Automatic annotation (TrEMBL):
Pfam family for this entry, one: Methyltransf_33
Organism, scientific name: Methylophaga nitratireducenticrescens
N-terminal signal peptide: none
Organism domain of life: Bacteria
UniProt-recorded name of the protein: Methyltransferase
GO terms assigned for molecular function: methyltransferase activity
Gene3D superfamilies, alphabetized: Vaccinia Virus protein VP39
Swiss-Prot/TrEMBL GO biological process terms: methylation
Keywords: Methyltransferase, Transferase
């Protein structure tokens, strides 16, 4: 079991990565409505904090999808008759739910390999170590890289049939047009009849949603504030974390949970690497993350519009979360996209 850091990341020196981070911060803080890209959540500390979030009482998505994946293993195996095959996971994180699925599949066949992909090198290193213990016979090749660069590797791995996993509510972090573009770019890298198992957080009681993103222990708050800590540590920023509060709120028009950091007062913050000072008005927000919620009909529409046929939907017992099994349809005309 190994992992590979994609050349596109490895070849970027630390300086170039820092430059990209600095550029994104500059763009985000110079915009009329300030924002930061959510991929910067996941340094080593951010990945650990996310793992803690998944265990929180209020954070239902992991529990619900765990329940689904614990049930679907043998049924899923029936959809993959071609052996050997490859399981490629985008944004694998700690893989805690995937391990259940892998165990269930291993009860039917061991003719598959597992290729987790994640932007966080520390998350990947931890995942490889834990898989060595939990699934010592499984052939695993991890890739550290950005989704967008990594999916091109789907074309090169082998001609074996592929099952791509996009679990959690990773797809929810994209707005609808970007989600469609992302799914269609996955479609382009796959062959006819390849499979995608994709998680969707469903629309539900707004209080349940709001609680999930505003936990009592403040772990989500710490996760969001960690982005400012990263700016302090990596870009010589001077953020005082006590002068920002975290807000997770549901926007019913967009059907999405939105995460913000809000400046508690008028303040100026210098960022050394940018040689620039940014002004924050009282109550001014920095937008950090979107997490779109879906109806089953939205999932169907998304599949239809990106070149996939829906084979099956599974839901947890509360109806909070759904995983769809989609099949690549290469008869889908590119012009229809
Ligand atoms: C919300 S977590 C979900 C983890 C796991 N799939 C789950 O369901 O629990 C998102 C994961 O995707 C990774 N990630 C976020 N943006 C990414 C990107 N642009 N490319 C690759 N991985 C990314 C993060 O490092 C993190 O491990």
């Amino acid at each position: 079991m190994t992992y590979l850091v994609l050349d596109s990341i490895r070849n970027q020196t630390q300086d170039a990565l820092k430059e990209q981070f600095a550029f994104d911060v500059l763009m985000g803080f110079s915009a009329p409505s300030k924002y930061l890209p959510s991929k910067y959540f996941y340094d080593a500390k951010g990945s650990k904090l996310f793992e803690q979030i998944t265990g929180l009482e209020e954070y239902y998505p992991t529990r619900c999808e765990f329940e689904i994946l614990s049930k679907v293993g043998s049924e899923l195996a029936e959809f993959i008759q071609d052996k050997p095959f490859e399981i490629v996971e985008l944004g694998a994180g700690d893989g805690c739910k995937t391990k259940v699925l892998l165990s269930k599949l291993l009860e039917s066949t061991d003719a598959f390999s597992y290729i987790p992909i994640d932007i966080s090198e520390s998350a990947m290193a931890d995942l490889i170590v834990s898989l060595k213990q939990s699934h010592p016979t499984l052939t695993t090749h991890g890739i550290v890289g950005d989704y967008f660069a990594s999916i091109r590797h789907l074309e090169n791995t082998s001609d074996n049939r592929k099952l791509v996993l996009l679990l959690g509510s990773n797809i929810g972090n994209f707005d609808f047009p970007s989600a469609k573009r992302f799914l269609h770019s996955i479609w382009k890298c796959l062959n006819h009849n390849d499979l995608l198992l994709i998680g969707f957080d469903l629309k539900k009681d707004i209080d349940v949603l709001t609680r999930a993103y505003n936990d009592k222990k403040g772990v989500t708050r710490a996760f969001n504030l960690n982005v400012l800590t990263r700016i302090n540590n990596e870009l010589d920023g001077e953020f005082d974390l006590n002068r920002f509060s975290h807000h997770g709120m549901y926007n019913p028009r967009h059907g999405a949970m939105e995460s913000y950091l809000v400046s508690l007062e008028q303040q100026e913050v210098h960022i050394g690497a940018l040689e620039k000072t940014f002004e924050f008005n009282p109550y001014e927000a920095i937008h950090l993350e979107l997490s779109h919620k879906y109806l089953l009909s939205d999932m169907q529409k998304m599949a239809n519009e990106t070149g996939f046929n829906v084979l099956k939907n599974w839901q947890d017992s509360q109806g909070y979360f759904a995983d769809g099994l989609w099949q690549v349809n290469k008869d889908f005309p590119e012009s229809a996209y």
